[in-house]
Specification:
The protein has 426 residues and is α+β, with helices and mostly antiparallel strands. It has helices at 6-24, 34-61, 78-89, 103-115, 117-120, 135-145, 256-260, 265-283, 415-425, and strands at 149-152, 162-168, 176-179, 182-184, 186-189, 192-198, 206-215, 219-220, 226-227, 232-242, 249-251, 305-307, 312-315, 318-321, 325-328, 334-336, 341-349, 353-361, 364-374, 381-382, 387-391, 401-408, 411-413. It folds into four domains: 6-61; 78-145, no CATH class; 149-242, Immunoglobulin-like (Sandwich), CATH 2.60.40; 249-425, Glucose Permease (Domain IIA). It has nine helices and 23 strands.
Amino acid sequence: MISFNQQLLNKILLFVLIFSIFLFDIPIAKAITIEELQAQILRLQAQIVELEKQIAELQSEGWCYDFKVNLKYKEHGEKIRALQIALEKEGLFKVSPTGYFGPYTFEKVQLFQEKYKKDILEPWGAKKGTGFVGLTTRTKLNELYGCTKIHISSLSPQPGDTLVIKVKTKLPLEIKGRLNSEKINFFKFGNHWLGIIGISVKEKLGKYNLVIDYPNEVRVGDEGEAFSDLPDGEFLRKELNIIERKFPVTELLVTKELEEKEITPSKIEENVAKENLVLQEVLSVFTPEVYFDQSFIYPLEKIKDVGAFGNIRKSGKITLQHLGVDLEAATGTPVYAINDGRVGLSRELTNYGKTIIIDHGMGIFSLYLHLNEFKVFEGKEVKRGDIIALSGNTGYAIEPHLHFSVKINGTSIDPLRFIETIEKER
């Protein structure tokens, strides 16, 4: 795929045309010799060569190519020529691109692989270039010269983190991907595709395969729709390493006032299990569209964390993990919708108190617990920054505060890190 300054190219071509007209528009009244005419032709040819050189430079300036299939020795065609141009840009290919994968190209591919051995060879345990353009070589070529640009927020996320994959492409098809066997849902956000994954606090530490793929060949149907009759091919594969995050362990506190209401650690555990089933009815509904077109905001004017995400609370044999964040908020503090969406739940529960869940689409939900007063009800569409409730002290709460959670496809993630990551990567 080639791009260059079309306006400048048009000017150059116009100049060539005018010059040609000038050359052949020889006044009849003035006779010139054959030698003079040949001299004018030679001067024009020299200028045309120079103009062609400028055009080539313009074409090369914005050059890009998506390497979607493996390439091997003795192949030929446009994709091989693109490989040779990429090698030329690396300062390795010193002759004119021919489009044939011969011995010279083979040798230069080896040098390219050894130049980027950490990304290309080490994943396979190899030390010397193979000359074969496989997945890791293609991944590096696409990273450097591809028309489809992929940015990953982190290759070393922690449990509770939000992983954002941003894809800019000229392809007319929906991007696909997966983290090991888990599907990544991509959606259009601005001028790029966005994939958002939640890393569960229960996720095993270690290495995972992150794969981005799309159809190998794009065709256009009679109605102008894009499709492919070939199986999907891997465009990029990266190794993701989930690293340790230590969560504090604290006591599961129960005040005398709560005990008088028969709220004990065992009762809390029982209620959590029951109420999670109620929440799951809402959270399990996948809306295959995105309601928002902006980044996310905080649910309160002032953010002070008084109950960390992932905090492990214990009382005897009972252990509960805090899968949200507690934010300081006096009773009656306005609570804002963190983005556009639809209210999926507005109900009072025993443990969680007055609770609101907003569906933002594509499996993303925000939850607001222990509220004092509802300002919106189930089914209502809300906008980013709308007041949806007033904070309170309902349910199992030691003191007034807002419990704020975010879930992505059922996975609880650190809501404050989520907002920060989306804002940074959008």
